[in-house]
Specification:
- This protein has 145 residues and is of the alpha+beta class.
- It has one domain: Roll (Nuclear Transport Factor 2, Chain: A), CATH 3.10.450.50.
- Helix content is 37%, strand content 34%.
- The chain has helices spanning 8-22, 27-32, 48-65, 130-137, 139-144; strands at residues 33-39, 70-79, 82-92, 105-117, 120-128.
- A five-stranded mixed β-sheet has the order 1-5-4-3-2.
- A hairpin with a 2-residue loop joins strand 2 and strand 3 (82-92).
- The longest helix is centred in the middle third of the chain and has 18 residues, at 48-65.
- The chain is globular, with a radius of gyration of 15 Å.
- The termini are far apart.
- The mean pLDDT is 95.
């Protein structure tokens, strides 16, 4: 449902993806996440405050390992207060991330579902293609020995 004026749920999630994950600005997490925020994504679950801090650390870790990390929304749908996105994440592993730097480029698909109430994220599910990331960074090769 792409329109000229995207609905608020898309605008809020898109800002988190662009400014936070692509831009590396962790301050946007506090601005856009409700104090009662519920995170369902593996590795980021916890109390609202714990989840918010884990998201910020995740952004920092991504940019430490892949300074050129970028997440671009390819498609989205909004129904009521819920937004679904399919995005492409790209970057080059020049720093430590899931192992030592390899200099390899990644390009993976990320699916996100979020609920937005009064301009803030109240609930989120994220599904990055971690298997593709492991394969593309060489982590799977290291596991095979």
């Amino acid at each position: 449902m792409n329109t000229d004026q995207p609905p608020e749920p898309f605008v809020v999630l898109d800002r988190l993806l662009r400014e936070g994950f692509s831009g590396g600005d962790t301050r946007v997490v506090d601005e856009l996440c409700s104090p009662d925020f519920v995170e369902h994504q593996f590795g980021f679950r916890g109390s609202p405050a714990e989840s918010i801090e884990k998201i910020k650390r995740g952004i920092d870790d991504l940019h430490r390992g892949m300074p050129d990390f970028s997440l671009v929304v390819d498609d989205w749908v909004v129904q009521g207060d819920t937004v679904w996105t399919r995005a492409t994440a790209t970057g080059t592993q020049t720093g430590p991330f899931i192992g030592p730097p390899t200099g390899r480029a990644i390009s993976i698909t990320v699916f996100d579902v979020a609920r937005v109430v009064d301009g803030r994220l109240v609930e989120h599910w994220g599904v990055p293609d971690r298997f593709a990331m492991l394969a593309q960074t060489g982590a799977l090769d290291r596991l095979r020995g």
